[in-house]
User: What shape does this take?
Amino acid sequence: MSTREIRADYDDQSIVVYQAYSPAIAEPAVAAQRFVPPFKLERMTWIKPSFLWMMYRCGYARKEGQERVLAVRITRAGFDWAVSNAVESSIKGKPSVRVQWDPERGLNHEALEHRSIQIGLTREAVDMYVNEWTIGITDVTALAREIHEKVRARDLDGARALLPVERPYGTSTAQNA
Assistant: This one.
């Protein structure tokens, strides 16, 4: 496995990215199947194709303000656009898309050897994400908590069996972002 590899749940037309929000943002988004107020288009929003990295970030949906985990299915064309227009988060300026590669995480939040992509969207990229790329939004909080319970019970095989199937995502620009 390469050091930087996008792994995701995807099909020919779409890819799943994850985000965690408070119920105030998540519930209207799930109901509308798109992000609506109080979601703010003016703020940077980070999307993550790795379920386990999202679990690390939100503490299996236990951190304040991140109690709801959403699986957002977006177009591959939109995702590919974001990756191809991204700049490293360490670069100064105000790009529409930032990218950072953080250590992938395991079931117990342990750092793994390979890196997982996080994509930060701002300005026109957020607008496209919300109004053009989003195909559907599913609340996967119950799944996150079920996996966490299995991890806490040391049933790692049971936890792994519940994970979304993620496989290497092949975009020509993905590995270079």
Observations:
- The longest strand covers residues 111-121.
- Residues 141-152 form the longest helix (12 residues).
- Residues 44 and 122 are 5 Å apart (CA to CA).
- The radius of gyration is 15 Å.
